[in-house]
Write a structure and sequence with these properties.
homodimer, 75 residues, mainly alpha, 434 Repressor (Amino-terminal Domain), 5 helices, 0% strand, Lambda_DNA-bd_dom_sf (chains A, B), transcription (chains A, B), Transcriptional regulator (chains A, B), DNA-binding transcription factor activity (chains A, B), DNA-binding (chains A, B)
Chain lengths: 75, 75
């Protein structure tokens, strides 16, 4: 089984989440509520400590009104 | 807590995986081996039955030599 380092996607997602949330002037509480997720879970995603699933990625993308692909793209 | 339907991302990912795998003439066994994943797991992802994590999404993207964002985009 190939050893793969911790996915760099976590850091990209964390950066894009913080950026998109700041653009909207939203707290973590607000984004968590809009996405129907727990704030501490969202906080862990923003610290790259959470191996988030695509169902939850979709909920966050919907809340921010962006595509999921956008969340995984470093602009 | 907002009720969110099963994420449409699963179907997009499933479609793009089958497309990209076919383009390379790869079997599920070959892609699973390249990504260091279990074939039955990959098969479930291709049937939209698996709520895949971004770490595993990254492994598949690496194996196919595409961006993770590409895997979540319906072209």
């Amino acid at each position: 089984m190939k050893r793969v380092p911790l996915s760099p996607l976590r850091a990209i997602l964390a950066r894009q989440l913080r950026l998109l949330r700041a653009e909207r002037g939203w707290s973590q509480e607000r984004l968590a509520a809009e996405a129907g997720l727990n704030r501490t879970y969202l906080s862990a995603v923003e610290r790259s400590e959470q191996n988030i699933s695509i169902d939850n990625l979709y909920r966050i993308a919907q809340a921010l009104d962006v595509s999921a692909a956008r969340l995984l793209t470093d602009l």
